[in-house]
Design a protein that fits this description.
The complex is a heterodimer of chains A (377) and B (80).
Chain A: H1 2-10, H2 15-18, E1 25-35, E2 38-49, E3 55-69, E4 80-95, E5 99-110, E6 113-126, E7 131-144, E8 152-154, E9 157-158, E10 162-178, E11 181-194, E12 202-203, E13 207-208, E14 214-228, E15 233-245, E16 261-272, E17 277-288, E18 320-332, E19 349-359, E20 366-376
Antiparallel strand pairs in A: 1-2, 1-20, 2-3, 3-4, 4-5, 5-6, 6-7, 7-10, 8-9, 10-11, 11-14, 12-13, 14-15, 15-16, 16-17, 17-18, 18-19, 19-20
Chain B: H1 5-24, H2 50-63
The chains are: A mainly beta (377), B mainly alpha (80).
Amino acid sequence: MKRAALLVATTGVLAAASAAVAGDYVVVRGAYYREASTRVIQPIVEVERESPSGIDVGAHFLVDAITSASIAAGTAIDNVFTEVRDEVGLRVRMRWARSDATIAYRYSAESDYWSHGIGVSYGRRFWGDTGAVRLSAGRGFDTMSARGRTPECRPGMSAVTCPLDSWYAGVNYTQILSPVWLAQVSYELAYLDGFQGNLYRAAPNFGYEVVPDKRLRHAVAARSAYYFPQTGTGVQLFYRHYWDAFPGGDDASALDPWALRAETVEGRVYQEVTANLELRLLFRYHWQNHAQFWCDAIAIPGCYAPGSTYYSTDPKLGALTTKYPELKVVWEAGAMRDLPFFRWFAGGSFEVSYGYFLQTTSFGGAHLLQAGYRLPY
Amino acid sequence: MRIAPKWVGLCLAAGLLLGGVAGCAHRPPPVAPWQREHLSKRALRFDADLQEDRFRQHWLGSREGADLGFGQPGGGCGCN
């Protein structure tokens, strides 16, 4: 659901600015993620068609080919497998003079995990089209199963498949502050009810992990962008604060099993090198504490007290920091217009990026390589 | 009943935002239509990389605990 909701939330949020950009396009991309325990290859194709009648349609299809050695992910069982996930999404947007509404649907399937997501959003521009507010909502229906066993979806409740229901709501406000400066603030809320762990991950002395089945998650974020026309340089800054809680509990109390907090900052520098070539340098820093029920059972096998209600070895629920530097190159392919055959690509742009993801968890570092081509039509 | 300080802060921020928006209605917009040539630059767009954002959400959601948590389909890979 989040993907659909994010898509809904971000597509057209800056309608005032994006009105100058062609809305019809085809994008073909590939992404490669490699760390010691996991490799992911993700090809994706996306198409969008804007209609003069004010009804736009977009669709995407992607495949995740994931090879994972789960021992490095903190499990007690060494296991290597490759899995393929298919995802398809469809969205329809209706535009009016100062507003738009979007409905999006996404379906994802793999051999042991199926997910439906639907999202809606409504956006309105005002103050001379320099301000835009967007409201988003979404609903997710996930179902998962465990190969080779009947899992306990909740303690004492075994079932062939485990459900996870999710609700999402978000609001953001974007303001153009000057011809070269704009800012955005946002708030997002998600409620999850169902199995939220991993059906294959186990904790020493306890067996398969058990995590709280309800979670209320919040995030506030602010970002700003500024452009220096004299040098063709742009700067974006982003800050996000996250917190969550077990619904109905006192999240200020140590009794709350979640109470995870996180801070994320990100900076981007865009530099136009020539009329057709642009560089983007990005650095992201993320910090979080651990979920209150979590302890490092891999390093300290006895850290969970006998009879503990919840236990997990999921590294992402522990205290961690991550850093991500990335360099991206975007090339407008107009120079190819005089070349036989390749002139078909002259109307689009190529991009390639490389980044290195530094993690303080047992996952270690990860290489990310992405390449894509975008053709407006 | 005790009200958490963060909720007071959120309400205050929302009030300031709404007040600011209401106040803007009586002022001319900060940018005229003929001053928008730079606003389509990638550097001034927050929605310029939807496909990149989608992939980023996938790997960050499986490696950090502060993702909002829905729409991270995937079980066998240990991504949950």
